[in-house]
Design goal:
12 helices; globular; alpha/beta; eight-stranded mixed β-sheet; 25% helix; 17% strand
């Protein structure tokens, strides 16, 4: 796999004016398939991370990247929805389990909504109040109604609030997939650590995405991971998938004749948070499914997920904190500063923050490197990282945010990642970042957090220190964190 220069021009697979047919060649063929030219193209969109009020520049970048790349498929690798947006304050949950700080954090979001800092101005369902109560997985109004002793009324209020949240998430999904639907490009979705915070589970969000033409996420309610699932009702009627859970499935890609599988594309729900602290890992079922993919697909596969693995640190070099451009590691790696290891990473790579991976090694990397069943894994999550390298016989890659609703690099560096596969060596694709500055130009709006979050050190001793373990004071200011998150100046990852 090679990585092209970020400013390189993207060659077009097809020439000529738009004739009304889908932009995706695979959509014309009815399955994910290499073209007669011997090429197959894929676009990764990482960390859109928008609320119901989607930034115009986010949509402009998605549209421009699709026009430049003309991909067969677009893959969203999690955190499409900024679940902490104040628009979701009534159903917000910080974790999938209840915590003592849920009410405090929700109060912070409510304060943000009251001050007009975020999406809360989009309105609430009838009957929703503004107070916060004791900790629970869902929002303040549900907790307050339950506290009055009328469980039936509480359930009705919560149902109404969740339906409102569904409508808001549907609005976000419509806006970010709109450029794909208009161009006839199929897409697939997995999830990150912020999507669920809006209050919806992944199966509910899966159902919302399937409402839009082009979505390839299969229904997982009757999943039989060992049997192919026909996507007959999709824009690819001849496509099959192997299904494990919502956000976890495999899509075989056929050869030029559409007869044999050349490779597999795996979307993996990499989890969100661990109850022991830090980020979580894929479920046991997802890891078991991943181990079976090479046999099911019949060829090597590439994985797309939200969370990077601890092995991403193998692509970095430990250095002194006084080293120029050094960044501090995250949690179990935070005692050390790092720069990219140029002997292991490709030209054009950059490191803007510590790799935010789970504390515990789930064994996923061992599965990926077993019997050469996989050739690459690409993740998002770290909005300011854009690097590709090789370790243990597999390519690992980090893709920066393509969204303008959260922290990230300067606007011109926000990007989509293009992969171009060649039938002569399908397991060694070329990749490059399609950056906003090259495709679109100047942003339509300016955010104060852009400069602060895009600072790079210019002298020794000025190491970037972005991700410290939260101390006692930080825990005591959780409500303030919720307020700040609603403004967007330092949103959590």
């Amino acid at each position: 796999m090679s990585q092209h220069n970020h400013s390189a021009r993207v060659s077009r697979v097809e020439s000529g004016e738009d004739d009304g047919r889908p932009l995706s060649v695979s959509a014309r063929l009815g399955r994910l398939q290499f073209h007669h030219s011997g090429k197959f193209r894929l676009l990764q969109l990482a960390d859109v991370q928008e609320g119901p009020k989607v930034s115009q520049d986010t949509v402009r970048l998605i549209a421009a990247a699709c026009d430049a790349a003309r991909p067969d498929l677009v893959i969203f690798t999690g955190n499409q929805v900024a679940g902490y947006d104040t628009a979701y304050e009534r159903t917000f949950r910080k974790r999938r389990w209840s915590t003592p700080l849920d009410g405090v954090y929700s109060a912070g979001l409510s304060m943000g909504g009251a001050l007009g800092l975020g999406g809360a101005s989009l309105g609430r369902p009838n009957g929703a109040g503004t107070g916060a109560g004791s900790a629970a997985p869902y929002g303040a109004a549900s907790r307050g109604a339950g506290a009055n002793g009328d469980d039936r009324d509480a359930e009705q209020v919560r149902h109404r609030e969740l339906k409102h949240t569904e409508d808001l998430v549907r609005r976000t999904a419509e806006l970010i997939t709109g450029p794909l639907v208009e161009r006839g490009i199929p897409f697939a979705v997995t999830y990150g650590n912020h999507d669920f915070q809006c209050g919806l589970d992944t199966d509910q969000m899966d159902a919302i995405y399937r409402e839009f033409p082009g979505c390839l996420n299969p229904e997982a309610t009757a999943a039989r991971p060992d049997r192919p699932y026909a996507l007959r009702g999709s824009v690819l009627p001849d496509q099959e998938a192997f299904v494990c859970q919502p956000g976890t499935f495999a899509l075989p890609v056929a050869d030029m004749e559409g007869k044999g599988s050349v490779m597999g594309l795996v979307l993996l729900d990499s989890g969100d948070y661990a109850q022991s602290g830090g980020y979580g890992s894929p479920s046991r079922q997802a890891l078991e499914f991943l181990g079976s993919v090479p046999r099911l697909v019949g060829n090597r596969s590439m994985v797309f997920q939200h969370m990077p693995l601890p092995q991403f640190y193998d692509l970095l070099k430990p250095v002194s904190s006084t080293t120029a451009y050094a960044v501090q590691g995250y949690r179990r790696f935070d005692s050390q500063c790092y720069i990219l290891d140029e002997s292991r990473t490709y030209a054009g790579s950059y490191l803007g923050e510590g790799v935010s991976c789970p504390d515990e090694d789930s064994g996923e990397f061992d599965i990926l490197t077993r019997d050469r069943g996989f050739f690459a894994l690409f993740a998002g999550h770290d909005h300011r990282n854009g690097f590709v390298g090789q370790t243990g016989g597999i390519v690992l890659g980090a893709t920066p945010t393509c969204g303008f609703g959260a922290y990230g690099p300067v606007p011109r560096k926000r990007a989509a990642r293009l992969f171009e596969f060649d039938i002569r060596h399908p397991h060694h694709p070329r990749t490059q970042l399609l950056e906003f500055g090259d495709l679109v130009g100047r942003p339509s709006s300016h955010k104060v957090y852009t400069f602060a979050m895009s600072h790079v050190p210019t002298s020794t001793g000025d190491a970037v220190n972005l991700l410290r373990r939260p101390g006692f004071l930080a825990g005591g200011l959780t409500a303030l964190a919720g307020l700040v998150a609603s403004w967007g100046s330092s949103r959590h990852k």
